[in-house]
Structures are given as C-alpha cells and as structure tokens.
Amino acid sequence: MHILQPIATTENCRYCLMCRHVCPVGYVTRSETLSPHGWGLTIASVRRGLLQWNRETSEVLFSCADCGLCRAHCATDQPLPDAIAAAREEVVELKQAPPAVYRIEQALQQWSNPYTQQQPWPVKQRGDVALFVGDAALFLWPSALEAAQLLLSAAGVQPVLVGAGRNNGYLASSLGLRSTAEALAQANLEDLQASGAGRLLVLTPGDYYTFSRLYEDRLGIAWPREIELVELVPFLAGQLEAGALRLRRSEDTSPYAYCDPTHSARVPGRDRAPRRLLATVLGQPGLELFWRGERAHPAGDTALQFTQPELADQLTLARLQDAANHGAFMLISEDPGSLAHLNRHASRFALKIQGLYELLARHLA
User: Fold this and answer.
1) Are the beta carbons of 134 and 206 closer than 8 angstroms?
2) Rounded mean pLDDT of the chain?
C-alpha cells in the first residue's frame, strides 16, 4: 500500500538503535550521525525547527545508501528508507541538495540514464516473455545481458527486450527526484505494454525490488496485476531443477565466494538460488562472506556513487575485503552495477571478479 506520510517514520526511528548493527554506511564510517537513527534524528530535528537544511545537514541526509537493510531488520517494519527519500524530495525542492543531484536529474530527464548520452532502445518485438535490460547492463557490464540471453535461449525462452538503456527509476527516487522517477516508471511500463508480455524477467534483485515495491510505496504507481514479475536467477535455478536447463561441471577448483548483489536484503529468500546454480557448475559450495544473504551489504552501485563517490568506494572496498578475508580467489555476482564497482578495485585484493550469468553460459551442456 502506498505510504502517504513516510516521513513520519522518523519519529519512531530517531532514538532506536535496533538496526544500527547492519547499516553498511555506519559500518564503514563508524559515525553515529551516518546511521539509521542518525538520519531519523536529523530529519525529525529539522521538522521540529532545531535544525535547518543547509550544506552540512544535506550532506548527512544524502549519505544514506538506500540499501534497505534497516527496514529488512526492523521488528516493526518501519519504512525509514522511504522516509529518507521523502525528506530528500523536500531538500531538492529547496535547492539545498548536493550539486550532483541536479546534474543526475538533467541526465535522467534527457537520456534516461546517468552513464552516457544515449537514448533507450525502442521495443521492436512482441512476445509472451520480456526481459528488462535497464542502463547498467547495457552500459557498464554488457556481457551479463548477452549471457542471460544465451541461458534463456537454452531454456527455450526468447524474451523481448524492454527498458534497454533506461534506468528503472530507483536512482531518481533515491535522490528525491520524484517527478523524474515517475516519468521513468511510466516509460518502462509503456515499454512493457508495447511488448505484449505477460511475464517480465529481471536481471537483478534491485530491479525486482523497484518494480515490486518501490513503484507502489514511493510513487503510488501500481504494478500491472496481469504481468508476472520474475527474477532471472531463481527462474534459472527452477529451470535447472526441472531439467529444462543443463549445465556441465567446471574444472576450475579455485576457492570462490558469491557476493549477494546490492538490494538483496530487499528480496527475502532469493539467496539460495544463485548458490544452487554455482554449486552445480563449480562442484562445491562457495566460501560464505560475513555480509551475505539477509544482511548483504551493497557495493558502491547506489546513488552514493554520484553524491558521495568516496563513500561508495568504501562500501565496495569493504565487500572486497570481506571476500579476501575469507580466502576467496574469485568473487561472483550477477548485478551489472555491483560487478562494475567490484571490478574497479578488485586488483587491490588479488581477486578475480566473475559475472554469474557469464559463468553459467560458458558451462551450458
């Protein structure tokens, strides 16, 4: 249900520390101000007239990664990330947001993505199944898209590509750019309608969360009831178990770890599927990181990469350090944005970054 006044959540969160232990930004900065209750207290203090939005308080507000871990670990399901996004909307209107926010707004409005000056691809086909491409898969890690199409073809699925080169709307919403987020959401839904598909496959948990919850909770845009939303990795795991997808065993016995991608905590129960696929191909379970599954920290592929790039790098480095500490040689994930950020710094830890879809596609039987 659409939350009409999410910002009121801060009244409940401002002195609560129950999710403090899972906050990735708090973990890497060791700052109580940059923690869930710190953001709640800042917003509540502005509402009480004890603080005002200025350069300092705005920097605090825009330091949240909007990863969803606080809500995922909240005993009373307080939508604090939605409250922070709503507060950012107010700050954007006051012209007090970091300058990068307005640059991203312009890029999203003109090009529908923050990475390159290229318009989204139009939908050219119709079919029963569609695959949402997005912007990161097309511009940051295109091999993931190519491999995903090979895997689907092997399973007898030929999807229509939709949203190719267009942001899913999460970035704009996270930055408080509500009208831009609404425009991106509507454009993606129009693509989906043009495809004629009754099922939409998505490459990442971030896409799944955005379509299944963010549109409704933050934008008041309902997902079409007649269209089934399916995350690709669990779909492939189901196809493997059903015998519709066949994979051969790899000869590589290097120690590996699976890195749950950004927003994984927002999709409960999805952590088992990628591990089943990897155990089939690599012959053994991977090393388990500390920040995994329901407490999986994000890499730097959140809005922080634009507003606080140094903080985004800290998050990425922490994920890589976690893998190195556990003795991994290869770190595997499927999210194109997460892969791009991990790969940028992997050499510092002598880690090989491997795309999950690419790995599976190379081992099709």
Assistant:
1) no
2) 96
